[in-house]
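Work Package 4 report. The design task specified in the project plan requires that, given a folded chain encoded as structure tokens, an amino acid be chosen for each position. We show below one input record used in the internal validation round.
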């Protein structure tokens, strides 16, 4: 059991238990003090891996409202965690490298590979059919090695659950690439090929934040090494490069993106489900902008969520930026550490790294999945579990009858024809668009990213969604359906009727103001307003002028008062007006005093 104590404060007696789930689904536990900062915990996990290129990674946790957060390295862990002890967190990739080939060590590439494998499984890394097949083949090559007809059955790809919707056509394509194109590649090379293909996709590095745009349509916001992106359906509708992003800000549930596009000011407005989700989105935006845009960490500034004085949140990214991380990686001179890869078929309680003598939590947070059908059922029932972000790649082979296989093949055949037609239509649309727009406009316009809509798992998005509310479908339903349900509510009918009556009253008042008889009333109201303004200004001058004279005639040694006293105008006022007035006032005061004493 490792214990950490902050060097700045004396050690406290009370300890806190923390469990961190790693990218290979193993778990390490440790005891920390109540004043231990997040950086200690992050360094602990990186030391467990012997990881030096640790700026790409972070620790994520979930609060009681199911809102996900990144652990702030500069703040104490206990002050950030609002849930009950023991604390459970996840070690994840926070900033995706723009060019994975520049990663120096194989260990870092392997951890990035594990993260991308999760992104593929949970639907965050959405891509076209050909790219999906290649990514799946790279995963199989890294897990199984070369294809061996004597060892691997005809349907060996079906043992893997690689994608949220894994069709028979996709499995056949993966099998073809695995057997022909990737033969002879070691796990490290297969993982590198996956990284090289994945980083060219539009959804690479996207942590999707669900929200609504100004029309009420569902959209997913994300931040990549290229800039700020927005996805709707199967299209990327916005790409605002970091050089064109001016500022991010939020107010309540509303998130604003201010930038420049085609030399014109652009303001994008989005609405989240909760204020906490909006603040988390804003913090992620600020961190990603600083990491990818700034050339040095010294250029990072503290930003505010609003331009109004004494209002809003203030936040500053405290780590190194991407360019500094790449420079530091190029200077690593040590012997490469041994990479302990998880073996095919291992259970979720994988403990091959236990030689570090760290306490492992043997109770998995999720039950092991026995079949793809059971996995779909459990995902539908427990889709809002905040820690589902850790399903390991394990063989999932359902037992089915020959009749079910025949029915499934028929359905897959129909589905294949539909997918081919959709792909042809998409290809034609792409060719037409390429004829009419140039490359620069295409980079910022709507771009089809896949044949299917971008819809990551509900538990994988940072925004909390109540299970009783029906998940993302009900939270982000269409405006027409929402209005229909609202109009069907009797209480809403009463409120609408009251609103109509108020609108009619306001309209009648506006018409009365436009009538000729109301012209004199408007003129009188304007005169009264002007008179009040003059009276207030006069009263203010009557108060401020005597106060200024008292300050000028006093002995206060203030620079601006001293400069006024040295002017000829003030000296003339002092000797010709102030001194005679003062003598007259003192004479009157003495006379009144003598009369009072005489009486």
């Amino acid at each position: 059991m490792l214990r950490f104590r902050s060097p700045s404060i004396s050690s406290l007696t009370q300890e806190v238990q923390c469990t961190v789930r790693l990218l290979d689904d193993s778990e390490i536990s440790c005891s920390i003090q109540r004043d231990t900062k997040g950086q200690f915990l992050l360094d602990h996990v990186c030391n467990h891996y012997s990881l030096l290129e640790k700026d790409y990674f972070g620790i994520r946790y979930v609060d009681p409202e199911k809102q996900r957060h990144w652990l702030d390295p500069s703040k104490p862990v206990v002050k950030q965690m609002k849930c009950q002890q023991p604390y459970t967190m996840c070690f994840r990739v926070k900033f995706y490298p723009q060019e994975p080939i520049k990663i120096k060590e194989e260990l870092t590439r392997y951890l990035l590979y594990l993260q991308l494998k999760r992104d593929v499984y949970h639907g965050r890394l959405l891509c076209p059919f050909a790219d999906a097949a290649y990514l799946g083949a790279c995963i199989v090559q890294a897990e199984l090695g070369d294809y061996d007809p004597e060892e691997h059955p005809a349907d060996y790809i079906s043992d893997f659950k690689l994608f949220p919707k894994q069709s028979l056509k996709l499995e056949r394509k993966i099998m073809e690439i695995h057997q022909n194109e990737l033969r002879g590649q070691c796990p490290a090379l297969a993982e590198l090929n996956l990284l090289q293909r994945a980083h060219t996709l539009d959804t690479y590095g996207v942590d999707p934040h669900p929200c609504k745009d100004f029309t009420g349509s569902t959209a997913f916001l994300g931040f990549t090494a290229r800039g700020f992106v927005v996805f709707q359906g199967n299209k990327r509708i916005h790409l605002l490069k970091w050089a064109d992003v001016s500022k991010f800000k939020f107010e309540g549930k509303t998130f604003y993106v201010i930038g420049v596009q085609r030399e014109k000011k652009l303001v994008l407005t989005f609405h989240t489900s909760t204020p906490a989700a909006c603040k988390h989105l804003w913090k992620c935006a600020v961190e990603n902008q600083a990491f990818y845009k700034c050339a040095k960490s010294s250029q990072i500034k503290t930003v505010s969520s609003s331009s109004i004085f004494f209002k809003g949140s203030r936040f500053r990214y405290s780590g190194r930026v991407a360019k500094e991380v790449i420079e530091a990686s190029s200077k690593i001179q040590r012997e490469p550490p041994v990479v302990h890869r998880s073996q095919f078929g291992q259970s979720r309680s994988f403990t091959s790294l236990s030689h570090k003598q760290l306490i492992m939590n043997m109770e998995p947070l999720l039950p092991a999945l026995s079949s793809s059908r059971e996995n779909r059922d459990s995902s539908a029932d427990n889709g809002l579990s905040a820690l589902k972000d850790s399903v390991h790649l394990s063989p999932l082979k359902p037992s089915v009858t020959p009749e079910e296989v025949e029915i499934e093949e028929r359905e897959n055949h129909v589905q294949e024809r539909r997918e081919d037609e959709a792909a042809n239509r998409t290809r034609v649309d792409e060719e037409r668009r390429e004829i009419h727009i140039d490359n620069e406009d295409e980079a910022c316009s709507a771009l089809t990213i896949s044949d299917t809509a971008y819809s990551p798992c509900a538990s994988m998005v940072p925004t909390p969604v109540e299970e009783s509310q029906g998940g993302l479908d009900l939270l982000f339903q269409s405006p027409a359906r929402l209005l229909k349900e609202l109009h069907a509510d009797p209480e809403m009918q009463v409120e609408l009727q009251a609103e109509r009556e108020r609108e009619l009253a306001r309209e009648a008042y506006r018409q009365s103001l436009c009538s000729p008889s109301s012209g004199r009333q408007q003129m009188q109201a304007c005169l009264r307003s002007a008179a009040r303004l003059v009276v207030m200004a006069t009263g203010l001058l009557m108060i401020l002028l005597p106060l200024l004279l008292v300050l000028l005639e006093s002995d206060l040694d203030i620079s601006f008062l001293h400069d006024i006293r040295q002017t000829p105008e003030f000296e003339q006022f002092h000797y010709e007006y102030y001194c005679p007035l003062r003598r007259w006032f003192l004479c009157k005061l003495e006379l009144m005093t003598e009369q009072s004493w005489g009486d």
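The chain has 17 helices and 16 strands. Validation will be extended to a larger panel in the next phase.
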